[in-house]
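User: quick one - fold this with zinc ion bound?
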Amino acid sequence: MNTRGRALVAGLFVVSMCAACAQTGQKQVSLVVTNGLVVTMDEGGRVIANGAVAIDGADIVAVDTSDVIGREFSGTETIDAQGQVIAPGLINTHTHAPMVLYRGLADDLALKEWLERYIFPAEAKTVSPEFVRAGTRLAALEMIRSGTTTFVDMYYFEEEIAKETKAAGLRAVLGQTVIQFPVADAKTPQEALARASTFIDAFKDDPLITPAVAPHAIYTLDGPTLTAARDVAQRYGVPTLIHLAETRDEARTALERGAMSPVAYLDGLGFLGEGVLAAHGVWVSDADIATLRARGVGVSHNPESNMKLASGAAPVPAYLTAGVAIGLGTDGAASNNDLDMFEAMRMASLLHKLQSGDPRVVGARTALEMATIRGARALGMAAQIGSLEPGKRADVIVVDMTAARQTPMYDPISHLVYTTRGDDVRTTIVHGRVLMRDRRVLTLDEAAVLREARAWADKVRAAVN
Ligand SMILES: [Zn+2]
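Assistant: Sure. Structure tokens for the protein plus zinc ion:
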């Protein structure tokens, strides 16, 4: 059938459905996900047994019991979530997507040695537009398969990452990296800033992509460049992404520049404010936390990367008490070594219980909030994403709960944090579009993505030897 014929049949289908709607009083919508246990993560923490979500186009139009949704709406497409949990898509607030191609390249090292001896040299020899495209496809495949619907990225050739992210159908905040030394996409920080401006111009009105500026860290940038990067972000009204207070070494950089801490140093530059998302925030004092709160800075907590590089444990209970907007991240797969946000939730919860000696801190609900609504707040996107509520974008996951490991289930929130794995996600929806249905990814050629990633690994191996 040609395109016109298909359109005609689709048109007839819609007309006949709407004729049915007229008789039943139902409103025609694009998609209904029904018969599931809905974990909304809304203000009231509503959980709906035998619930459903009605989606029209990119938006959620209703969240209620399956009976009510079935009476009021008719979906052009319906997904039956029997035996499954329907939840907001997960938000990964810090990663470097293409670094999945360095997964397992160098382990068991501290940040400084890991970066300077392995990662920066490998990047100098292998990062290219083709590399970041292949890496982003692999990362997108992994994220779709494990229920991440929004990710925050800091890397190079961010316009290529944006194109692949859009093709895969994911939502993302993408930060063009600014760093003092020559890198694959810019010889100087000035060139990187010019690239950032071009990138922002190209994607500023995109429904899925929020472009951003990503000054790497205080230990890889001088003061004037940090200020210049922040100025570009403010001029365009886009987010600023930075690694902040990740290691004890970084605290020394701040001291050398005459400030008490990395946070105090950036505050002295006038850098901190709304729209800044700081990754890690491990080496901070109570005064630093108060400063981050007062300036409206969001924080991304990356428990697995912090543990693996032995960077330290961020004072998450103190951030929560102070009311700082704090989300969860995986960091790049070279330091994690995967992008599974379920694992990040579990690790966040367990790490802070161990660290504080108090099993009540970072409970299951708080961990799930950090991966959803609190992450959305840290990004300044809580009006659009982070919970299942009418008027928000339809970023939804359906999670299987029938494995032996998940049986029986008394509390879905406990299960999402303490027993679920990324592989349990059956269906992933972003902006109302089904990206994976019953474990089949619809927007990427899975075999080709994996084949291509293995071919890149051969080049990486040759480059670092
Ligand atoms: Zn990072």
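One thing worth noting: The longest helix spans residues 3-24.
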